[in-house]
Amino acid sequence: MTTRTTPHPTAPLLSVDDLVVQYHRPGAPPTRAVAGGSLQVRAGEVVGLVGESGCGKSTLARAVCGLVPPAEGRIVYDGTPVRPLRVRRREPALTGIQMVFQDPYGSLNPRRRVGAQIADGIRTVAGRGEAPSDATPADLLTRVGLSEDAAEGYPQEFSGGQRQRIAIARALAARPRLLVGDEPISALDASAQLQVATLMRSLAVESGAGLLFISHDLSVVRLIADRIAVMYLGRIVETGPTAEVWADPRHPYTRALLAAVPKPDGAGVLPAELPGDVPDPADPPSGCRFHPRCPKVFDGCDREEPQLIAGGVACRLYAA
Amino acid sequence: MKRSLEGAAKESPEGVVKRGLLRWLPPAWRRPLAVTGGLVAVFWLVIVVAAPLLAPHDPLAQNLPRLASPGAGHWFGTDELGRDVLSRVLYGARVSIPLALLLVAMSLLVGGVLGACAGFFGRWVDETVMRIADLVFAFPTVILAMVVAAALGASLQNAVLAVLVVSWPSYARVTRGLVMGLRNREFVLSGRLLGFSAWRSLRVDILPNVLGPLLVLATLDIGTATLLLSGLSFLGLGAKPPTAEWGAMVADGTQQFDKWWIGVFPGLAILTVVLAFNFLGDTLRDALDPGTARTIGAEKERVA
Asked: What's the predicted TM-score (pTM) here?
């Protein structure tokens, strides 16, 4: 599967350790959107990051790209610490991380031709000091399933799904070794969602890149991810190979999420709903962050904060 | 656009043909105010170019009967020095309109660059630029322009500088707001992730997207600039006496109140120029405002 050779074959391509990201609001305590999240992505691996809206998935993705500065913790990409992007140019080494954004209507410049925007990505490869590829915008557009003459068009001439393909083509033009998709399918029609998701997976895996795919759509993540990480209120609560997590979810939150996925088995069982709302990340519950909504809460959950154990779950039910 | 407007002007006697030509205009430009604004602006631009050919007399020559009322030979009358008012109004266009255009271009450049830097870089750049802008905003425009013009000495060049000092902050403010809104848009961030420098990001991703609203502001401002420049000349802080300048001519008119033609014609010239560019600016805004359904229709027509 992996065609590229990394300096340390066992070392993860991307390693996020105890990441904390805070948003500051005047006159209020800072909101901890990510409160100690840890995550690894290996080359050629597809990691699906799932969770409810507002749990910090997008913030984590933005921090990985350097778009928001971390308050604590480390993000290391291929041996290089990721420094937040400010006024200066992005470090060439870090252009190996590319992102596909959620909103296909906002992620392309409305005043430039599609071809020119993809050509920017091709130029990035040369800027990194690698041998320039002979790929043209037209080639890249064909790879994402669009016609070659789409390069001459402006973004507003395309549908949401087509624009997302163009955004993927632009990200791929930079020959990323880590592709981050920040809910890239949630703004698309149901018919385009799976197409775009599988396209991202196949293109990333073909080029040997890692893919961090963020979504709240578990049924899609199940189909494309090798590994799943479940996030709740700024923390990763469970992680493991997709098949294992799907067949045997351990954290009560993961179970609740999976129970909420409709099953097309004809049995007519309605998906179970998780009671309550996500608490305010500015004022998280004490102890385990899930305990106010947890069906299996027991004595001590409101005091002790469980850590992610080696088995890949952060819950006191499975204390080592 | 200019071509089709001139076309409409030529064919205006035949109403049917005119309506046919109007259909070629984008919908926002079909309304009476838009057509009027365009025609009057074109009319004045033609005068700017052709004043020496159109003027019946030398605007500075004092060889006509003094204070003659409008009539054959001097349609707009003559002033107290025996100069032809019509020729002076026509030549006045060559002073006021190019200066107003230059002034707006300079304000756009100065205010745009400062505002874009403030919006894009934020922090101390933003604080510095916007506090200076606030300082200018805190004074009444005309009074501050008068102070600057008086401090620099009365001349047209200094009047332009004075108006520039008071007019750049509105461009800076608008540009800053637009740039701040765009700075965190995803397509700008995508560019930065591809390794764009701040400069390239500004030039390629941000500038083309703020140009439309800024052009509207500039067009609306041509009228204001004309008014301010004439106002300074009226107060004796702009054009020096022999120069045919509308504001100075209105000031002369106030000395001879019963000789209405001395002040009324240059006053009308100021009025029509200001109105024409305001109509044009309004139309441009309607044409570029993405919120209106009418414009979306125009977009489709252009693509098709």
From this structure: 0.78
Taken in order A91, A92, A98, A103, the sign of the CA dihedral is positive
Positions in chain B whose pLDDT score sits under 70: 1-22, 28, 289-304
A80-81 sheet: strands from edge to edge: A31-41, A14-23, A72-77, A80-81
pLDDT value at residue B131: 93
Q: How far apart are CA A6 and CA A300, in angstroms?
A: 44
Give me A277's structure tokens: 């709302």
Task: Give the N- to C-terminal CA distance of chain A in Å, as an integer.
Answer: 34
**Three-state DSSP class for residue B227:** helix
Contact state of B195 with A110 under an 8 Å Cβ cutoff: no
Contacting A residues, span 46-65, partner chain B, CB-CB under 8 Å: 65
What values do phi and psi take at A131, rounded to 5? -60, 125
The tokens for A68 are 């928001």
Q: Does A86 touch chain B (CB under 8 A)?
A: no
How many CA atoms lie less than 13 Å away from B30 in the CB half-sphere? 13
Q: Give the C-alpha separation, B29 to B32, whole Å.
A: 8
Please tell me the distance from the alpha carbon of residue B114 to that of residue B108, in angstroms, as a whole number: 10
Burial of A54 (0-12, 13-18, 19+ CB in 10 A): middle
Mean pLDDT of chain A: 84
Tell me the residue length of chain A: 320
- Phi and psi at A52, nearest 5°, equal -70, 165
* Tens-place pLDDT, residues A223-269: 899 999 999 888 888 999 999 988 888 888 888 888 887 777 767 66
Which CATH number is associated with domain A14-318? 3.40.50.300
User: Which residues of chain A have a CB within 8 Å of the CB of B196?
Assistant: 89, 120
Domain ranges (residues) in chain A = 14-318
> What's the CA gap between B118 and B60, in Å, rounded?
47
Are A308 and A230 within 8 A, CB to CB? no
DSSP output for B41-58: HHHHHHHHHHHHHH-SS-
CA A189 to chain centre: 20
C-alpha to C-alpha distance for B186 and A109, rounded to whole angstroms = 9
Regarding beta strands A97-100 and A46-50, do their DSSP bridges make them parallel or antiparallel, or are they unpaired?
unpaired
Q: What integer pLDDT is reported at residue A271 of this predicted model?
A: 67
